[in-house]
Amino acid sequence: MPSFDTVSEVDLHEVSNAVDQANREIGNRYDFKGSSARVVQTEDQLTIQADNEFQLNQVKDILHLKLAKRGVDLGSLEEGKLETTINQARQTLRVQQGIPQDIAKRIVKLVKDARLKVQASVQGDKVRVSGKNRDDLQKVIAMLKDAAIDLPLQYNNFRD
């Protein structure tokens, strides 16, 4: 029976490359000379540090540009709270991997409401859709691409 998996994954190696490129550009820019502005990556969490909130926003723009050039969808970043002190600003960004349960249930509901002859089931942090007809599966993919889901979705493991 044909099936495919709906996942939300980010290549952390590409994120690491984008962080390195952003730090290199920050080190070379004249307006950041002598400042402590940088991006630090720990697994799936990015910490942006700068001397003030204005510089922090500039560093965040540089990071977003580098991530977009590396093919990382910015919708997979969850911004944390902005922490400011007298001489430093800091913000954490979390790279979201996998589909949370509430969004997975919403995807299953969307598939069931489409009234196609397919079955959708949540399997951990992904949603598997299976059916007898390959065309129905392609209709589900097209429908999910058009749906207003706050996560970047990929469709892989398509089996006939």
Helix-strand blueprint:
Layout: E1 3-7, H1 12-28, E2 38-42, E3 45-50, H2 53-69, E4 77-84, E5 89-95, H3 101-113, E6 118-123, E7 126-131, H4 134-146, E8 154-159
Antiparallel strand pairs: 1-7, 1-8, 2-3, 3-5, 4-5, 6-7
Helix pairs in contact: 1-2
Textual characterization of the structure:
The chain is built from four helices and eight strands; from the N terminus they run βαββαββαββαβ. It has 160 residues and is of the alpha+beta class. The chain has a four-stranded antiparallel beta sheet with strand order 6-7-1-8. Strands 2-3-5-4 form a four-stranded antiparallel beta sheet. It is elongated and about 65 Å long.
Please bin the fraction of helical residues.
25-40%
Classify the secondary structure makeup into a structural class. Answer: alpha+beta
What is the mean predicted local confidence, pLDDT?
A: 90
Please provide the count of β strands.
8
- Our estimate of the beta-strand percent is 25-35%
Low-confidence stretches: none
Query: Alpha-carbon distance between the termini?
Result: 6 Å
Please write the string of helix (H) and strand (E) elements: EHEEHEEHEEHE
